[in-house]
Amino acid sequence: MNPIERTVRRVDRFQQSHRPLAIGFGILKKFGDDRAGSLAALIAYYGFLAAFPLLLMLTTVTGFVAGRYPSFEEALLDSALRDFPVIGTQFNDAIHPIQGSALGLAIGTLGLVWGSLGVTQAAQHAMAEVWNVPGVDRPPFVKRLARGLSLFALMGVGLVVTTIAASLSTFGDAPAVTRAAGFVLSGALNVALFLAAFRILTVRSISLRCLVPGAFIGGIRWSILQALAPYLVDHHPRYASQIYGYFASVLGLVSWLFLGAQLTLYAAEANVVWKRRLWPRSIVQPPLTEADKRAFDDIALQGERRPEQSVESSWDAGETTAD
Question: What global pTM score does this model have?
Fold first, then answer.
C-alpha cells in the first residue's frame, strides 16, 4: 500500500466512524452513483428555455400596466429592473418606452408552458433515478403529464409568494426585524413548497415523512439563493455595458438555475440516504460496506423494464479485502 492510499484509507476510516461525516459523504456518493449532475443540467436546460418566455411575458404585461398607471411606471424606473441589460434600457428610454404586445404575450405563454413542462418531466425523471425506481414501476406519460401540470401550478404560485416574502429581507430601508421576519417566512414557505413538490414527484410508496429532511434542507438553501439574487442584480449588471451585461445576465441565469437544480437533487438524495440508511460508504474499495452493497443492489434492480422481467443482485461470499 503506497503512502497516498494509506492516507486516503485513514481518512475513510475517520469519516465512517463519525456519523455526521458518514451521512454527508453518503449523500455525495449517492449523488455521484445516480449521475445527478447530468440530471441537474437537464433540469437547468429546460428551466433556461422557460426563463426567457417568462421574461417576455413579464415585459409585455408590464408594458400594458405601465401605460395606464403612471405611478407604477415611476416605481419601475426607481427599481432594480432598470439595471437589467437590454430591458433596463427600455425602461429608462423616454423616447421609446416599453409597450405591451398581444403577440408577445401569446408567444411568451406558449414558450413558458412548453419549457415548464420540460422542467417537470425532467424533474420526475430525476426523482425516479434518485429513488432508483424500476422502469416497470414508473408512471405512464398521461400520469406524468398530469403530475407535471400540478407541479407547474405549484411552482407558479409558490415562486411568486416566496419571492415576495424573500423581498422583505432585502429592502435596503427595511428594519432589521422586518428583514429577519421576511427571511424566516420565506424559509418556512420554501420548506412547505419543497415538501409539496417532492410529494408530487416521488412515487406514492414513499411516505410523506420520509421527504421532510430533504424539504427542510432544500427550502433553507433556496431561501439563501433568493436572498442573494437581488444582490447580484443590483451590484453587477449596472457596471457593465449593454452587450457585456447581456452575456453576464445569461451566464448568471444559467449558473443560478444549475445551482438550484443541483441543490434540489442533493436535498432529494438526502431523503434517500436517510430513508435507506445508506451510510457509511467507503471512499476506496475493497472492502465494501453494507451500505455500498445496498446502494449497488438498488441500482441493479432499477434496470427492470417489463413486468415479465426479473432482475436479481447477489454478491460473492469471498469478497476481496484490502491488504
Answer: 0.79
